[in-house]
Design brief:
The chain contains 15 helices and 17 strands. With 413 residues, it is of the alpha/beta class. The protein binds guanosine-5'-triphosphate. This is diguanylate cyclase.
């Protein structure tokens, strides 16, 4: 049931719309229209991804269904057409995930966004740093309600150790006044290792009018909250800052990867391989260029979509065969690999094994399945000039094509 959304609403049209959104996003859903039906369902099953609940039901008019769901530890957001401020305040005083007024089409867009966020949050870890157990417990409760994974540290040193050991931490929420190391000192230390785009930091300052907020921001915090804050503001700032680092990560991914195959692109290959050839000992490495044979014929015979599919499947095979090495799509039907820590014989063996595998691998394309071959040129890295190595591999590739394709040729200087 962890993929099931429980919809509690006596308005059939609203329930149907929520159900359609849930199904579109890949969730299952169960709909109940009264408190009586809700009790019946929860007597059998209480593990739900979340609940979308109305404030007022025919047999429970004052939010009793919300209290019941919360008492069963089901993350619940309220969707209601009761817009009075008093209702809103009453709902927000409960431990709900969110409050949504069923006013316009935007309310349903908001629900879709919220469901995606709740799903996505399961993969995000947030580190809470505070020496006061009660403060940690409060923040933890708020974060768990939105499905986040939570780690806790009672001082700066513990926080730094956790960051080292838990690479899935995407955000730190820290207090200022702590023994041994203040929050600001912790932010300074974190920023020596992690940029604003890699790891978001939200600082919590105890005194609203102090200059602490400005000091936190100047020292590298992404945002600052003053105590006391309400959960709505806390969540808004958490999401805003997470979205920021996620957008930056998306832009970075797009800049470094090929859109079609999702392998690294030529630009990234030059940047990374350039660094490796300049700074690492690469005498025991090889550089290979792999080019599919007669690829134009696949496009001509089966269409461009089939060609795209072949490129994607080739990329997947390359990634799994050469895991741990730098693999990129160079352009068109050409790929490049930097084979590190590999003797020339081993590189030859691995590349020959790959083209043999490719030749015998049935690729599924629309309405058909085909196999393809590839030619490979490679060179042992005896120079640290990347351009030169690529030229040498290219000369060997040209020979492989001329010798009849479907073979690996080593550059001999
Ligand atoms: N489907 C698809 N085709 C592409 C893409 N990029 C380049 N191509 C096609 O790849 C083909 C490459 O053709 P050629 O350079 O003649 O090479 P080839 O047919 O593989 O012949 P040899 O390399 O000599 O064996 C061209 O038809 C390009 O249009 C792409 O992203 N998708």
């Amino acid at each position: 049931m962890n993929n099931t959304i429980l919809i509690v609403n006596d308005n059939a049209a609203i329930a149907a719309r929520v159900r359609a959104i849930a199904n579109k996003l890949g969730f299952e859903s169960i709909h109940v229209a009264s408190y009586f039906q809700l009790e019946k369902v929860l007597s059998v099953e209480t593990h739900f991804f979340c609940a979308c609940v109305d404030f007022s039901l025919p047999d429970a008019k004052s939010g009793e269904a919300i209290d019941f769901l919360i008492s069963q530890n089901i993350p619940s957001f309220v969707l209601t057409n009761q817009l009075a401020d008093t209702t809103r305040d009453a709902v927000l005083s409960k431990a709900v995930v969110d409050y949504i007024a069923a006013e316009t089409i935007h309310s349903f867009d908001y629900i879709a966004k919220l469901l995606l966020r709740l799903k996505h949050n399961r993969d995000i870890r947030i580190l809470i740093v505070d020496d006061a157990l009660s403060a940690r417990n409060y923040l933890k409760k708020l974060l768990l309600r939105h499905n986040f994974k939570v780690s806790e540290a009672s001082d700066g040193a513990e926080a730094l150790a956790l960051l080292e050991n838990q690479p899935d931490i995407k955000m730190v929420v820290t207090d200022q006044t702590m023994p041994n190391m203040t929050g600001i000192e912790l932010v300074q230390k974190i920023r020596m290792q992690y940029s604003l785009e890699q790891l978001a930091i939200i600082a919590i300052s105890a005194t609203p009018k102090s200059i602490i907020a400005a000091r936190f921001l100047k020292n590298g915090a992404n945002d600052c909250l003053s105590k006391p804050f309400n959960p709505d503001e806390f969540y808004a700032r958490i999401f805003c800052n997470l979205e920021y680092i996620e957008h930056v990560a998306e832009v970075q991914f797009a800049a470094n990867h090929d859109y079609l195959t999702r392998l690294f692109n030529r630009r990234y290959f030059f940047e990374r391989a350039g660094e490796i050839t300049q700074h690492d000992n690469i005498s025991n490495s090889a550089l290979a260029i792999i080019d599919l044979d007669h690829f134009k014929q696949i496009n001509d015979q089966y269409g461009h979509d089939a060609g795209d599919s072949v490129l994607r499947q080739t990329a997947q095979r390359l990634e799994s065969h050469f895991r741990g090495n730098l693999v990129a799509r160079f352009g068109g039907e050409e790929f490049c690999i930097l084979l590190q820590q590999m003797s020339p014989d081993e590189a030859l063996g691995r590349l020959e094994f790959f083209i043999h595998h490719l030749e015998h691998f049935e690729m599924e394309i629309p309405n058909n399945s085909i196999s393809i071959t590839a030619s490979v040129g490679f060179t042992v890295c005896q120079s640290n000039e990347l351009e030169k190595l690529i030229k040498q591999a290219d000369i060997a590739l040209y020979q492989a094509k001329n010798n009849g394709r479907n073979q690996v040729v080593e550059f001999k200087g």
